[in-house]
Amino acid sequence: MGQKNLKRFLHWAQVVVCLSLIIMSRVSYCMTVEKGKLYFVGVGPAGPDLSTLQAIDVIKQADVVFTPNFIRKAFKEHLEGKDVREAWPDSIYKVGYKVYTELQTQDELQALGKSIMGHAQDLAGQFKKLMAQGHSVALLVNGDPCLFSDLRWFKQHFKNEEFEVIPGLSSFNAGAALFKTDLTQRRVDTVIIFSPTNDAFSFQSAIPKLAKHQATMVFFMAGNLERLVNELKKVYDGDTPIALAYFIGYPEKQKLIKGTLSTILRDTASETEKEMVLIFVGNFMK
Fold first, then answer.
1. What share of the chain is helix, strand, coil (3-state, %, to 5)?
2. Contacts 24+ apart (CB under 8 A), 234-240
3. Cβ density class 161-176: b for 16+ within 10 Å, e for less
4. Which tens digits make up the pLDDT trace of 101-139?
5. Closest by CA position to 166, among listed 31, 271, 71, 76
6. At 248, is the pLDDT very low, low, confident or very high (cuts 50, 70, 90)?
7. What are the angstrom distances between the C-alpha of 83 and each of 64, 136, 266?
């Protein structure tokens, strides 16, 4: 090899080494979890495949991890050997023998709310005790902590400087991807994300008021589908597209049923799942 070629080879070798060091430094980067702090960790809608690297970092570093059982099963490999504690027993979401999707009266709904808030207060006490002992604490939250999550029950018990929120992929995002299109429309570039749980037993539903905007609407925890459809039909035409996305992110269970406000009750008559479902409404499907 001539001297000129040798210099050229050494130059490019240095470039490759530098690039490799830059890439390795980025790959090896991880978030540093602070002792005595609480982390609300959004883990996505369906296990590690839809969680972020930052979420995995926090799970690995946290001293104590609180999690619902279904998330614990999905993240079994990442939680192995850690101090893992149950966050939300199934009994919290029941009133008598009824699960929350079966509740039909105002008294039952109030009893459920009291149960959830009471348990959240107990958990907050456990978190504070562990934090005072210098432990880092992580609460694993399905989806994103800033959309219809556990954060609403705990924020009142902590100062902002006492906790961090780790964003996660929401079932809204993963569900939208199933349509392979933009949810915003040309005339009204708006998407309304709403949960009708607060007015489920009210005579004054907020749904018709929101529907007047003729925007794309996405419903979390919609409850009674027939009631929802009837409320929407007060504003939308019967041929307005509607779709129900079941078990978003779970390859073996994921299902998307499309129809219109006039047909969807018939299209989904045989479906028994009431909890793991998101509802999309709007002309973006046309």
1. 45, 20, 40
2. 234/208, 235/208, 235/211, 236/211, 236/261, 236/281, 237/261, 238/262, 240/281, 240/282, 240/283
3. eebbbbebbbbbbbbb
4. 666 667 777 777 787 888 889 999 999 999 999 999 999
5. 31
6. very high
7. 5, 11, 47
Structure tokens at 135: 């432990």
**183/271 Cα distance (integer angstroms):** 25
Per-residue model confidence as pLDDT tens digits over 263-282: 999 999 988 887 788 999 99
Residue 207 identity (one-letter amino acid): I
Residues in the chain: 286
The residue with tokens 């009291």 is: 114
Model confidence, pTM: 0.80
Q: Which H or E run contains 266?
A: helix 264-267
Beta bridge partners of 85: 66
Site of tokens 């018709």:
208
Does residue 103 contact residue 95 with C-beta atoms inside 8 Å? yes
